[in-house]
Amino acid sequence: MINRKEPSFRESVDLMFNRAVALMDLAPGLEEKIRVCNATYTVRFGVRLRGEVKTFTGYRSVHSEHMEPVKGGIRYSLGVNQDEVEALAALMTYKCSLVEAPFGGSKGGLCIDPREYEEHELERITRRFTYELAKRDLIHPSQNVPAPDMGTGEREMAWMADQYARMNTTDINAKACVTGKPLNAGGIAGRVEATGRGVQYALQEFFRHPEDIAKAGLSGTLEGKRVVVQGLGNVGYHAAKFLTQEDGAKVIAVIERDGGILDENGLDIDDLQAWIAKHGGVDGYPSGKYIKDGSKYLEADCDILIPAALEGTINLDNADRIQAPLIIEAANGPVTAGADEILRKKGCVIIPDMYANAGGVTVSYFEWVKNLSHIRFGRMQRRQEESRHQLVVDQLEGLSSSMGDAWSLDPEFKEKYLRGADELQLVRSGLDDTMRVAYQSMREVWHSRDDVTDLRTAAYLVSIGKVAASYQAKGL
Ligand code: NAD
Predict the structure, then answer these.
(1) Full-prediction pTM beyond 0.90?
(2) Distance (Å, rounded) from C-alpha 239 to C-alpha 204?
(3) Ligand 1 pocket: which residues have CB below 6 Å?
C-alpha cells in the first residue's frame, strides 16, 4: 500500500527528471517540452461477452515524438490508469534514448484482469482494442509500435499484428506494427527472455567494475550472491533463471501476489515457476518458509534485490527497512522518488529501471528491423562465416601434417569455432553490447561529476541530453 505522502507514479518520474535537469544547462523551455506527455488517448469500447455488452477502458499515451515511431508496451491490469501510462510512456522516452533504440516513448494499457477471461474472450477484447488504436494510427509500423508488458505476451501481440494486417491488407510492413510476436508470426528469437536477459547482462557489467561493486559495499563476482526477486513473471523468471543457472547466484526468496517464499539454500527457479503455474501462487511450495505478507521479504538480508513486479513496491513505508546494498529495478518504477532518497542516503546502489529493463525494447528494436528488412538475422552470412572458419582449420591441420607432426585441433574448440552465429546468438550479442555500452555511458557521468552521486541521475543526464540534442537538431 502506497503511503499518502507519496507522490503518484508520474509525479515520482517527474521528480527524478527534475533532479537531473537541475544539473543540466538546457535551452529555456526545452526542459518543459521534454518532460510533458504529448498526448494521451482514452478509449472506452464495448464487447459482447457472456450475453451482455461489457465496456472496457484503454489508454495509449505518447510522451515524446522526437523520434518516430514511438514505442512502448501494452499492459493488462486493473491498476491501469492515465497517470500510470503517462509515467510509463515518459520512462520509455528516456529508456530508448539511453540504449540508443531509435524511438520516441509511448505506453498503453487496458484496465482489465486478464485472469477473469477465457482465451477466446481475451482475443475478442484485444482485437477490438487494437482496432480502436489502429484506426487512429496508435498502432502503426512507422508511427507507434506496441510490445508486451505486464499481463500481455506473445499471444496478445500475435492477435494485434493479425488485426492490424486485416485492417491494412496491402501494407507490406504490417508485421512491424507490434513487437514481441511469436517466432512463427514474425517474432524474433530471444524476445521472450530479452528483458530478464538484459537484467542479467546489466548485473554482469556492473560486476566488471570493482569501483562500482565497492560503492555498493559488495565484493567479488555474481557467484554466490544472495538474491531476492519480487514477481516471477516474464522478467523476474528469466532474470532469476539466468542468474542462478549461468552466473552461480542464489535466489533465496521469491515474492509473488499471494505471499513470499524464502529458502537460504537457494530456490530452484524452474521448479518454483512450474509450481506457481500449477497452483496459482507460491503458497504450499514444499521447500522454504512461506509468509502471506510477501512484501516483508523485500526487507530480507540479501546482496541483490530485484523488484520485477510493479511500480511503487519500495516506498516511504518500507525504504528504511530495506537491507539490500544493491537494487536492480527490473520492473518500471518499483522505487518511489521518496524511497529513492532514503536509499541513496543509506548508500544503497540502485541500477535504474530505464537502464535495467531496457533489454525488452532493445530486442524489440531488432524485431522491428527484422520485420522491415523481411529477412532473418544471420541468414545471409552464417554459412559463409562457417566456410571461412573451415578454411582456417583446414589450413592449420594441413600445415601440421606437412610438417610431419600431425595433430588436430581440440574437437570441442573446433565445434564452437566453426559454428556460425544463428539469430538467437546474434540477438544476445546485440543485447549484451547495448547493455554494456549504455552502462558505461552512465558510469562515466556517475564517476566524473561531483554533483552526480547515483546511477539514476546519471542515466537521466545521458538520456535527456540525447533527447535535447534531437529536439535541437529539429530546430526546436
Ligand atoms: P508479468 O505479468 O509477466 O509478471 C508480473 C509478475 O508479478 C507476475 O508473476 C505477477 O503474479 C507478479 N505480481 C503482480 N503483483 C504482484 C505483487 N503485488 N507482489 C508480488 N508479485 C506480484 O509482467 P512482466 O512482463 O514480467 O513485467 C514486470 C515488470 O517489468 C513491469 O513493471 C513491466 O512494466 C516491466 N517490464 C516488462 C518488460 C517486458 O518485456 N515484459 C519490459 C520492460 C519492463
Answers:
(1) yes
(2) 12
(3) 148-151, 195, 230-236, 255-257, 308-310, 330-332, 357, 360
